[in-house]
Amino acid sequence: MKRVVVGLSGGVDSSVAAYLLKEQGYDVVGLFMQNWHDTTGTLEGDCPWYDDRMFAELVAKKLDIPFHFIDLSGPYRERVVDYMFREYRQGRTPNPDVLCNREIKFDAFLNAALELGADYVATGHYCRKEEIRMEGKTVCRLLAGSDPNKDQSYFLCQLSQKQLARALFPIGHLLKPEVRRIATEQELATAGRKDSQGICFVGKVDLPVFLQQKLTARTGDIVEIPADWPGYGTVLSDAMEAVPMERLAEPVRYVPADGTKVGEHNGAHFYTIGQRKGLGVGGKAEPLFVIASDVENNVLYVGQGQHHPGLYRRALRIRPEEVHWVRPDLEMKPGTERRFDIRIRYRQPLQKGRLYLRDDGAYILFDEPQRGVTAGQFAAWYDGEELVGSGVIDR
Question: Which end of the chain has the smaller Cβ count within 10 Å, N or C?
Fold first, then answer.
């Protein structure tokens, strides 16, 4: 009998995953991981980890499966949280959930599961895995979840074949209401629990307060850039063949003289592209959105309205060392190009575009301008329902 260690999180998804695996005849073991102790910046009312553990234990007891606990807060701080601080310090916006899956759930947690005799680890992710044979070898395909509203394949965009080979996603073929129904029918304690939100294993936080553990608050200017700023030129025009791709991938650079000071902030590194809340500037015809930040000079640039041209880009670049292929057998060579469906954030509808691989990295040229292209986030490319590769957006 194959043993599967399920990452019981105290939520309904992992609970139903454990139930389904037991029904399928696996030797199921529940393992709860604590990855965070500090409550600095955590919003009042957010469920602390010990509540999650209690619910996880109740589910394990109901399913009559062994329950174990492991503290992975050390690796989590080193590999995820410290990475977050480094990225924000440089004016980039990281995605801790993607890092948590690559570095913790399918690495540190996987290793702990193997010590418990696991053949596989399972999570409550809404995605699917398919195994195919190619040239005598087993190749894992990472597929989108069947629920279009909950597909979480994007969060797994950095996994390797070695990690996928050990992974099971028991609820990936289900819709969320079906998962709730199963949990209710089986009288699982988590059936009515709300889905977790915020930073993976940290929860909902006041980001500036959380980041001030390591990043110093500094007063700086908020500068508004008008929508008709001449520097936009033809970057968003239809005559794209006249603009080199490398230029399209360059974010627009501003100086304070390009606009008008409209307020002050407490640190440019606390803000991200497309952010609306927390600016504290009123009296405008339309809401202000962050269109750029200069962390070196501590200047925040904003524009009025969600259609401000400063919010949109046609292309992005990924450094060569940051290009990752979930399917190494489909890896492109420098000098080649291929069309893919692409997303640059979770739950974003897939966008049409073309991936160009060059010696200086990968470039993605979108068919339509994209709102909020943000350095530090991940771009993931799909071939149909299969996630083929991904990379950290450099610019």
Answer: N
